[in-house]
User: Which sequence fits this backbone?
């Protein structure tokens, strides 16, 4: 049986974290994924570790901003070791850094390969998590995601499938293309046109328009994905999202 995970960014607007962890444990989650803001404000690692242990949760993966990953590697490695994390992903770059030049994306890939060295040396999986901007047209036949991943064969991919769709692409094509690089996937859904406008058009897993049965079967069959992470960028009710999503995921 799959141990489903939950991206804690989904609950950033519903403090305190301790209540969120208890809620997730009660719903049957076994893993959580951290995010940059959590690490930036982490004053008491022991308290977080105790809270996770008390709820039988494992922070197996985490998102860490590029600058923090580059400039505070010793700190992130210490957190990863203390929490027995398995993988860390750079989740995005800012809008002002999203170039239309292929050379800039190639450089990002090379920079990530350099940044990743201490994480790889420690035994962690290190890689990239996509949004939709990696599928924009640039002055190359390749998409930005291709150019990023060309930086190193060691760069792993956490595929955010719904963002691939938002980028106008067929997710099955990209799953097939990078099957050997995909180690994790974000499970989220897209609401029917005009619905959930107060939640930026996202839907709880199983409540949207995506063919998750086919997508999940393909991820399991073709990729090395070990981590399946629920995420909603802007839920109005995080318990509703967490509950509906894990129940839907169990049917996939």
Assistant:
């Amino acid at each position: 049986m799959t141990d489903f995970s939950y991206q804690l960014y989904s609950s950033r607007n519903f403090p305190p974290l301790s209540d969120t962890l208890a809620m997730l444990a009660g719903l049957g989650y076994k893993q959580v994924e951290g995010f940059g803001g959590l690490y930036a404000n982490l004053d008491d690692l022991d308290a977080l570790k105790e809270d996770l242990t008390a709820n039988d949760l494992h922070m197996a993966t985490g998102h860490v901003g590029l600058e923090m990953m580059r400039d505070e590697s010793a700190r992130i490695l210490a957190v990863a070791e203390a929490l027995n994390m398995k993988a860390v992903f750079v989740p995005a770059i800012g809008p002002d850094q999203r170039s239309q030049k292929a050379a800039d994306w190639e450089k990002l890939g090379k920079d990530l390969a350099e940044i990743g060295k201490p994480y790889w040396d420690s035994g962690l999986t290190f890689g990239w998590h996509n949004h939709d901007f990696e599928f924009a047209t640039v002055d190359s036949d390749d998409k930005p995601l291709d150019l990023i991943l060309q930086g190193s064969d060691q760069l792993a991919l956490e595929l955010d499938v719904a963002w691939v769709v938002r980028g106008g692409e067929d997710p099955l094509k990209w799953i097939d293309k990078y099957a050997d690089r995909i180690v994790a996937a974000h499970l989220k859904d897209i609401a029917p046109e005009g619905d959930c406008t107060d939640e930026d058009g996202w839907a709880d897993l199983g409540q949207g328009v995506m063919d998750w049965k086919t997508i999940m079967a393909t991820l399991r069959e073709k990729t090395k994905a070990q981590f399946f992470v629920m995420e909603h960028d802007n839920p109005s009710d995080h318990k509703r999202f967490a509950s509906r999503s894990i129940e839907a995921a169990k049917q996939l």
